[in-house]
Design brief:
single chain; about 575 residues; mainly alpha; Penicillin binding protein transpeptidase fold; Beta-lactamase; three-stranded mixed beta sheet; two-stranded antiparallel sheet; about 10% strand; elongated
Length: about 575
């Protein structure tokens, strides 16, 4: 009887245990399927944009990135860029295999196996979090591309989690829309390498002076190493860190059999060669004055030309290619000619002439009083960047002048390169007044194409453009306008003969009559052709012609031919008294 009761009790307990186990299993299955449903709903909500911005199919097909606009010479040489981010895109076939292998080995070893999200890598990260042994991240190259194309911005911890999930969704969509090679190229176009270099093409040119396809393995490894922390591993500032980081990237390539042990040992000890390093700056490079003038023209062009979406073009973001008439060789020769003529000949002679302070107390100015000199210097001080910054900060004028009279460290221009020195800012203003300036432009007569354009001696220090802004009396170069007016108004021909004799002009009351003089007496008193007179720049003949056609007609012709500056309506313009720019 007791045994029967005990058996019944055990049977009942076993049934209760089975029920409990079944209940737990049902709950686990319910939790599992419920979790799947919740995850599915979460990713669906993310995908359709319920949890914030998600790029459309069109945006994924045409992702935006800031591209530098490039300026090309007539002989197809890149002479400069306009940019906010100095970036130029490349295609996969423009990438060195060394670069691709270094990136895959370091950032995403299973890049060619996963579909945007690497579950194996995520499990490794999850395990590392639990065990406290973290070994590498779980983000794939495609996920990093998603992050680069659609940046996170500032957000809460929960927001970061949601954004991370968004990047998973975007990554899978990118994998669906693009090939692996396209994703690789897009990623390398969107990353930053520091030193104002965005994208692999700009980085290759900046650090090594070559295109991405020409990178050797150690160069490619250094650039890939920079991606982890561009400033920290910058080889210019931190060569030892850059070497160590490059060794890590090379070691990853050894680990995944991209290189042999022997290659690794030989490459890791090589120094980083930065002999061709050149950081791009708006003020450096070929034809800086021309590029600045072109910038003003292109801004107007962009404002009046529209993209397919109806927005005006952006000079700094839309990657325009601007083709100019400048010839890169002629431009280089022109800049060299200015340096040689002014730097080696005229400027030393000028310094020597004005070096005697007793003889020239107001140097480098001539025939002015000390008070006038002080006024000129003060006006130059007010135009300086230092004065502008101090004045904008609310510093009083008296305090600014005190600051300008305190010696400070500075770098000043010289024809032999910038000089680091200690100088009062006000003395530096006077120092720069000693430098001769020039403007030079070469125009092809048959087409009007500008082949060379030198607006000054050094754009970094002197940004005033003497081609388009600076005006000087043009002298005898104005005489063709006088001759052309006479031919147009009077029907004269180059063979028409006129007397080479003085011409006197009646001047307004209170002024003496004016009679221009020739520079010599060659053929004076003879009948000469207009052709000979113009070739020899004879003043008598210019005076004769303007007396026939009058100054108003000459000015009108000059206006029609593109001269916009004010010209006084007086007879003396026949000798070139108008002040015009080189461009005019």
């Amino acid at each position: 009887m007791g045994k029967t009761k005990s058996k019944k009790k055990k049977t009942k307990q076993s049934k209760d245990n089975n029920k409990a186990v079944n209940r737990i299993i049902r709950l686990l299955w319910l939790g599992f399927f419920g979790g799947l449903v919740l995850v599915s709903l979460l990713f669906t909500a993310i995908s359709i944009g319920w949890l914030g911005f998600m790029p459309s199919f069109e945006e994924l097909e045409n992702p935006k990135s800031n591209l530098a606009s490039e300026i090309y010479s007539a002989d197809q040489v890149l002479i400069g860029k306009y940019f906010i981010e100095n970036r130029s895109n490349v295609h996969f076939d423009e990438l060195s295999p060394n670069l691709v292998e270094a990136l895959v080995a370091t950032e995403d070893a299973r890049f060619y196996e996963h579909s945007g999200v690497d579950l194996r890598a995520l499990m490794r990260v999850f395990k590392g979090v639990i065990t406290g042994n973290r070994a590498g991240g779980g983000s794939t190259i495609t996920q990093q591309l998603a992050k680069n194309l659609f940046p996170r911005g500032k957000m809460s911890k929960l927001g970061v989690v949601v954004q991370k999930l968004k990047e998973w969704v975007i990554a899978t969509k990118l994998e669906y829309n693009y090939t692996k090679n396209e994703i690789m190229a897009m990623y390398l176009n969107t990353v930053t390498f520091g030193a104002n270099t965005f994208g692999i093409k700009t980085a290759s040119k900046t650090f090594f002076g070559k295109l991405p396809i020409d990178l050797n393995r150690q160069e490619a490894s250094m650039l890939v190493g920079l991606l982890k922390a561009p400033s920290y591993y910058n080889p210019k500032r931190n060569p030892k860190r850059a070497m160590l980081r490059r060794s890590v990237v090379l070691n990853q390539q050894l680990r995944y059999d991209f290189i042999s042990e022997h290659e690794y040992d030989s490459l890791k000890v090589l120094p980083i060669d930065l002999s061709n390093y050149h950081k791009v700056d708006h003020k450096d490079g070929t034809a800086p004055y021309f590029r600045e003038y072109l910038r003003s023209l292109m801004k107007k062009w962009c404002a009046n030309h529209y993209k397919a979406n109806g927005e005006p073009y952006n000079l700094y973001r839309d990657g325009l290619r601007i083709y100019t008439t400048i010839n890169s060789k002629m431009q280089r020769y022109a800049e060299e000619a200015v340096r040689e003529h002014l730097g080696n000949d005229l400027q030393p002679a000028f310094f020597k002439h004005w070096s005697n302070k007793k003889r020239h107390p107001n140097a480098p100015f001539f025939r002015i009083t000390k008070k006038e000199k002080e006024r000129i210097i003060f006006n130059a001080v007010k135009r300086s960047n230092r004065y502008y910054r101090l004045n904008k900060s609310g510093v009083s004028k008296d305090s600014i002048m005190e600051i300008f009279n305190e010696p400070v460290e500075m770098s000043v221009f010289s024809w032999h390169g910038d000089i680091d020195t200690i100088m009062k800012p006000i003395d530096s203003v006077l120092y720069y007044k000693y430098f001769l300036q020039t403007g030079m432009m070469s125009v092809e007569p048959s087409t009007g194409f500008v082949r060379a354009y030198v607006g000054g001696i050094d754009f970094h220090h002197f940004q005033y453009d003497h081609v388009t802004k600076g005006k000087r009396q043009v002298g005898s170069t104005f005489k063709p306008f006088v001759y052309a007016s006479a031919m147009q108004e009077k029907g004269y021909t180059p063979c028409y003969k006129v007397p080479n004799v003085p011409v006197t002009f009646d001047m307004p009351e209170g002024q003496p009559d004016w009679t221009p003089k020739n520079s010599d007496d060659d053929r004076e008193g003879e009948m000469v052709t207009l052709k000979w007179a113009l070739a020899n720049s004879v003043n008598y003949i210019s005076a004769f012609l303007i007396n026939k056609v009058k100054a108003a007609k000459v000015i009108s012709l000059a206006r029609n031919m593109g001269v916009k500056s004010d010209i006084e309506q007086v007879p003396s313009i026949c000798l070139g008294t108008p002040s015009l720019s080189v461009y005019e």
